[in-house]
Write a structure and sequence with these properties.
By secondary structure, the chain is mainly alpha-helical. The protein is 80% helix and 0% strand. Helix 4 runs antiparallel to helix 5 and helix 4 runs parallel beside helix 6. The longest helix has 35 residues. The mean pLDDT is 84.
Amino acid sequence: CSSIGSSSGAIFQSMGNSSSGAVALFGYGVTLYVVHFVVIYVLGYLFMQLPIPDLLLGSNANIGNAATASALAVSMGWRSRLLPAILVGNLGNFIGTFGGLWLSTYVFRPMFLKAAGL
C-alpha cells in the first residue's frame, strides 16, 4: 500500500488534486486488497478450515513481502508463525521474480517484436 501512495506524492495533497489520479489509484489499491482478502478468507477459512492467523499472515506475505509478514507476526505475538511467514514471503518473491522473467521473455517480448514488425 505504501508503494501505491508513494507513486502519487504526498497522499493528503494529491487527494485534493483531481488531476493527479491519486483517488483512482487509491480506489484501485483498496479494491485489490479487499478482493484478495475475500478470496483468501473464503478459500482458506470456509473451505479448508485454516486458522485466521495463518490466513492473515499468508495474505500479508503475498501482498507485501517477508518483512511485512514478519512484522505482523511479531506485533500480534505469533512467534511460532514468524519463520513460516518469512519463508512464504521469500517464496513469493522467488516465484514472482522468475515468473515475471519468464513472461517477459516468452510472452511479452514476442508480442512486442510482432507489433513492431521485427
